[in-house]
Amino acid sequence: MKNVSVFGYGVTTKPIVKFLNHKGIKCVIFDDKFLSPSTDEYGNLLLPSDEFKAQDSEIEILSPGIPPTHFLIQKSKNPIGEYDYFYDLFSPSYCPQTIWISGTNGKTTTTEMLTLLLSKFGAQSGGNIGTPLAELYTKKAPLWVLETSSFSIHYICKAFPNLYLLLPVKEDHISWHGSFEAYVCDKLKPLSLMQQDTYAILPEEFSQRPEVINFIGKAFFYSDSQSLAEKIGVSIKDICFQEPFLLDGLLALYASKILFNQADIDCLNTFKVGAHRIEEFNDKKGRLWVDDSKGTNVDATLEALKRYKNKKIFLILGGDDKGADQKPIFELAKHLDIEIFTIGSNEKKLLAMGESYALKIYPCSRLEEAIKKIKDVLKSDGVGLLSPAAASLDQFKSYKERGEIFRQSVLKEEQE
Are 242 and 184 in the same domain? Predict the structure, then answer.
């Protein structure tokens, strides 16, 4: 293979470039962040995006975060995503079993839970989390459990999983996909590529979609945690997680039962939920704070609000809302004892909406300022909740950094 172009040089594509370099293939990498030509430590050429010329490229390997409207995508002749690239490398001598997990919220938790349940079968997680696909392929892992984003699915043309697990789909990434319908279509796209001996676990609401009706594999449907527990043949009271993690755990158990006829609740109950997703901690006065920085869309914030509906809620809201409609949060807030503290790039929009709903809402601009204001009014019967319903990149490097700054700021102020 010659003249390999790579679009975007980030978490997804760097392992692929390394994989290709080990095979003796140099790459030309195009990225908006490159301002002038240079090379990396492995001798790959790094160029600004506007220097891409289609006639100089035989294949273009895509970073999934690049939207289809980007001119690199528009100009490319032979674009291929990470999933299709490694699918093309599978052979009779090595063809791993694959599970894809997608949906709007809970992908990471469900992926990690299912990897734990299937570890005895050699399962390793990858995709958005865990081991890069290039390393899974190199290690010849027998079972790939992949957290799969709608961005990655959008660029898939041939790859498909043995089992596709779809969590509930709610409004998200509208600015990237263009509409909620386009987002849903991408979430259901794997069904059109899957073969007869494959399985899909899907929300009941999609049962009459054409993509589902025409699916030639075997589909299993669910509506909520109780319906899942009944299908699996387990009792919810035996599972140690509350919502939304209860649903994630039951979906992991369902996938395990479908593939291997096992639903190991004892193993599931050893799982520890990751940081920044409804993560509770107390300040030195014993007041409750919750880091839900991973709540980057409306549905995640709705789940967090429902969890603390019996408390006085001091909600930090705002950031890059990705074009999603924030009204459901304010509709729910009308029925709660809540005060809202806004931050981020959509602050003006949130303030206008809060005023239209006659809610107590305060502009703070920055996270630290919101924390200071909440500290003045939070009591032992309340909760200081960071659940922004927005991405973090307008003010932070990642949702992780946002969550870490939240926790540090709360505890630092207590020490002063």
Answer: yes
Residues 167 and 250 placed together within one structural domain of the fold: yes
Using one digit for the tens of pLDDT, what is the confidence trace for 10-50? 888 999 999 999 999 999 999 999 999 999 989 999 999 99
Could you tell me if 46 and 96 lie in one domain? Answer: no
Alpha carbons 288 and 264: distance in angstroms, whole number:
33
Q: Which two tokens stand for residue 262?
A: 């096992």
The residue to which tokens 């674009």 are assigned: 79
For residue 179, what are its two tokens?
A: 């509409």
**How does residue 242 score in pLDDT terms, banded at 50, 70 and 90?**
very high
Residue located via tokens 């030639």: 216
Domain residue limits at 344: 279-415
For range 119-126, the mean pLDDT: 97
The CATH number for 163's domain is: 3.40.1190.10
Which domain-ending residue is among 53, 80, 107?
80
Both 145 and 244 in one domain: the answer is: yes
Q: Are 261 and 283 in contact (CB under 8 A)?
A: no
66 shares its domain with 89: no
Domain check: are 122 and 218 in the same one?
Answer: yes
Which has the closest alpha carbon to 114: 321, 303, 257, 322?
A: 257
Mean pLDDT of the chain: 95
Rounded CA-CA distance 177/134 in Å is: 27
Laid out side by side, the sheet with 38-39 consists of 38-39, 45-48, 27-31, 4-7, 59-62, 79-80
Per-position b or e across 79-97, b if 16+ CB within 10 A of its CB:
bbbbbbbbbeeeeeeeebb
Stated as kind and residue range, the H or E segment containing 15 is helix 13-22
Does residue 186 have a pLDDT over 90?
A: yes
Last residue of a domain, one of 52, 80, 108: 80
Phi/psi zone of residue 365: left (φ > 0), alpha (ψ -120 to 50 degrees), beta?
left
Predicted TM-score of the model (pTM): 0.86
Counts of helices then strands in the chain (DSSP H, E):
17, 18
